[in-house]
Amino acid sequence: MGSTTDQPSATTLLRFATAGSVDDGKSTFVGRLLHDSKSILADQLQAVERASTARGRQGLDLALLTDGLRAEREQGITIDVAYRYFATPRRRFILADTPGHVQYTRNMVTGASTAELAVVLVDARNGVVEQTRRHAAIAALLRVPHVVLAVNKMDLVDYQESVFAAIAEEFTTYAASLGVPEITAVPISALAGDNVVTPSAHMDWYGGPTVLEHLETVPVVADPSEEPARFPVQYVIRPQTVELPDYRGYAGQIAAGVFRVGDAVTVLPSGRTTKVTGIDLLGRPVEAARAPQSVTLLLADDIDISRGDLLVPADNPPAISQDVEATVCHVAETPLTPGQRVLLKQTTRTVQAIVKEIPSRLALDDLSQHPAPGELAANDIGRVVLRTAAPLPLDTYATCRRTGSFLLIDPIDGTTLTAAMTVQSG
User: Fold this and answer.
1) DSSP designation for 304
2) Bridge partner residues of 294 (DSSP)
3) Mind listing the pLDDT tens digit for each residue in 337-350?
4) Which whole number is the average pLDDT over 31-60?
5) Residue 74, SS3?
6) So what's the pLDDT on residue 71?
7) Confidence (pTM)
8) Which residues contact 345 (CB under 8 A, 6 or more apart)?
9) CB-CB contact of 383 with 360 (8 Å)
10) Which domains are seen in the chain, by residue range?
11) Residue 368: how many CB atoms within 10 A of its CB?
12) Cα 379 from chain centroid (whole Å)
């Protein structure tokens, strides 16, 4: 555990999510991180000072910096995912502040789905609880490559190294068994400011980085060229103007990998093959583009292509199938049951599907698989087997997070039912 010595450029961006059980001090932690890194505007600080005084608090209530909804402030809990942008001289950050209450676990799925790192807070007095294990499981399922365990409220346990060590060992063992590749544990006090941005004077037994130091130096820049190229078509552009009478472009965001002029590509699910003859980026032609850039691709042949089609390298396509097995986190209040008809939305494509089987549900206490649970209730994590009405090109989630993930949607009212990660297609 620890951080790299490489010094990232201030132009690099780290997307990270925070998670923690109720009253683990997550909002105070985020407030401390923003405050001590000097990422709070003067008028925001003045508003929080006034609100802190109105609530009878001694000093600044840092939690008020992040709990923006009135219901959050009144109840003293975080309800919705809040995205915060801040920067230091070493790196830029987008923080997804997710709720801790069990009924809002689905919001953590949303916040962590694009994260490269997750900070999981634990109250030093309570240690690892069920919600901590749930957050670790979600981070593992979403393949978040880096997890920071922030053992908070160390000031309330007299900054004892033994308390921190026991919690760190329990969490690390659990998260590693889930497949989390990299775990860094940091003892902190968000209220007092220990080891969040500045090193603690109360824990000379700890020699690791502060949370911000780790966020600034953790290696997160992936090489898009190492991923299989994937381009979901979002819109077909045919201006049919005098200047561009024969222009036909396919617009969208590159989901993974790199596309270059001259590449042979296959259009899925039709299977037709052609070549990339041009790439337009921000109104100008380029020779290559990479994820996550939004571009317009021009192709050599006049092929029937529409929204929802997927352009992939001719020599590296994903599997196409109507049978899908996935690990899911059910987010709706109504349960998911075998035989249920749903809509499956993957990137820009939506198809009808039916839930054929729910083979198992994950028991978070011992990581055992509970076979044939009959249904998945809200916040349950389990396996689902689906049959789609039309062939669907799907990567496994391990191969590509963007094209290996999808949502199940209620076809009647459009409610999101389940967030899914493909395990097997075909």
Assistant:
1) -
2) 253
3) 999 999 999 999 99
4) 72
5) helix
6) 41
7) 0.77
8) 406, 407, 408, 409
9) yes
10) 13-221 (3.40.50.300), 225-313 (2.40.30.10), 319-425 (2.40.30.10)
11) 11
12) 16
